[in-house]
Fold EAL domain-containing protein.
Amino acid sequence: NAETAMYRGKDAGRATFQFYAHDMNARALDHLKLEAGLRRALERNEFILHYQPQLDLASGGIIGLEALVRWQPSRQPLRYPGDFINLAEETGLIAPIGEWVLNEACRQRKTWHDAGMPSSCRVAVNLSARQFRQQDIVEVVSAALRSTGCAPAWLELEITESAIMDDPESAAAIMRQLSDMGVHLSIDDFGTGYSSLSYLKRFPIHCLKIDRSFVRDIASDNDDAEIARAVIALAHSLKVKVIAEGVETEAQRDFLREHGCDQIQGYFLSRPLPVEALERFLHTHAEGGTD
Ligand code: C2E
Ligand code: MG
Ligand code: MG
Ligand code: MG
């Protein structure tokens, strides 16, 4: 927007800022503060990743770990992506933040490999719409793999249904290149967009993620139950896996298992965890610590 553009102008000194600040509403000021905060966070390395395990219902094994970004400003409470990802998208800061996330997730995955983590467990990284449209996204992904020694097969990229449907033709082309590299692709928040069946068939995807909003009342609401059943059937007819996100209760898990859903992710199994806590979880789980 115009105010931000002026503030960012080459000689936007303090005087200029104060002059325009008078006209700015509180919201715009909040945005500027947050944007400055995000730039500082990048410089000071204040982002961290939490990982949420994904469970295979048939084998009982952990087959994935979704990396979720958090911001830890010094001496302030932890901040969640709901607070800052949208602004990062609007300002373009999502490019460097997203690159940091990719590199960190790949580095961590390689470390886990060296510690004996099986290849079947992928680390899943979210790509926002703008990142996905970034011209050099394929190069950014391959550079992250190369520089960290992470194998492409250990990485999964989550792209939202709406990001893909913005421009399905070019999305299919980018996904083809990423898939050819050996990276797995999943469609996040599935069911909230407007995918057409004819398009879906043409995307080289490995997994559909049923959006949390359909999972919440799955065991009590007939419409949500129908939608979940339809997504599971659709995924299987496309010969891809299906995972349900936001699974919080045993009843939801049981419903999904009975209806052939392949995998689940959610608080019922575990919240997203910092590395050390996640490693303890994996250890306990491997010993048969959860059902
Ligand atoms: P998402 O990719 O759909 O991730 C799932 C979100 O649901 C996460 O929120 C997770 O903590 C939360 N969640 C998981 N299980 C449950 C559950 O059982 N119940 C409930 N109520 N929530 C659950 P989080 O970490 O706040 O992330 C929100 C969104 O921010 C993500 O949605 C994703 O779209 C975006 N995001 C997170 N990390 C990144 C990132 O590194 N890059 C990009 N571009 N986007 C990210
Ligand atoms: Mg996701
Ligand atoms: Mg999701
Ligand atoms: Mg979601």
Q: What stands out?
A: The pocket of magnesium ion (ligand 3) is lined by residues 188-189, 209, 245 (CB under 6 Å). Residues 94-114 form the longest helix (21 residues). The longest strand covers residues 47-56.
